[in-house]
Amino acid sequence: RLLVSPNTLRPGLERNIRAEIERHKSEGNGRIIVKCNQLVDQDMIKLLYEASQAGVKVDCLIRGIC
After folding, report:
1. pLDDT of residue 50
2. Alpha carbon distance 10, 24 (integer Å)
3. Over the chain, what is the mean pLDDT?
4. Domain-embedded: residue 4
5. Residue 32 in contact with residue 51, Cβ under 8 Å?
6. Which among 3, 11, 47, 60 counts the fewest CB atoms within 10 Å?
7. Is the pTM of this model over 0.85?
8. What's the confidence (pLDDT) of residue 62?
9. What is the number of structural domains in the chain?
10. pLDDT tens digits, one per residue of 8-44
11. How far is CA 36 from the centre of its chain?
């Protein structure tokens, strides 16, 4: 699915991250790869931390500030 900012990007990313957390809980092989220019959104950072704490492997490829 195409996620277009600002309409569907945030809710879509949140939905996908939460789905990956649930997938990891049921199957044990969750992984998230984030590639972006910067990561400064506090709510998104907290959600990625939540996924990491749940055991999902989270890789962040950030070009600028974080």
Report:
1. 98
2. 21
3. 94
4. no
5. yes
6. 11
7. yes
8. 95
9. 1
10. 899 999 999 999 999 999 999 999 999 999 999 999 9
11. 11
- For residue 21, tell me if it sits in a domain: yes
Place of tokens 């972006």: 36
**Regarding beta strands 57-62 and 31-36, do their DSSP bridges make them parallel or antiparallel, or are they unpaired?**
parallel
Query: How far, in Å, are 17, 18, 33, 49 from residue 30 at the CA level?
Result: 10, 11, 10, 14
- Which residues form the domain of 56? 9-62
Measured CA to CA, the distance from residue 7 to residue 13 in angstroms comes to 11
Kindly state whether residue 56 falls inside one of the protein's structural domains.
yes
Evaluate if residue 6 carries a pLDDT over 90: no
Which residue is it, tokens 């910067």? 38
Catalogue the long-range contacts made by 29-32 (C-beta closer than 8 Å, 24 or more residues apart). Answer: 30/54, 30/55, 30/56, 30/57, 31/56, 31/57, 31/58, 31/59, 32/56, 32/57, 32/58, 32/59
CA count, 13 A, side-chain hemisphere, 17:
22
Answer yes or no: is 1 within a domain.
no
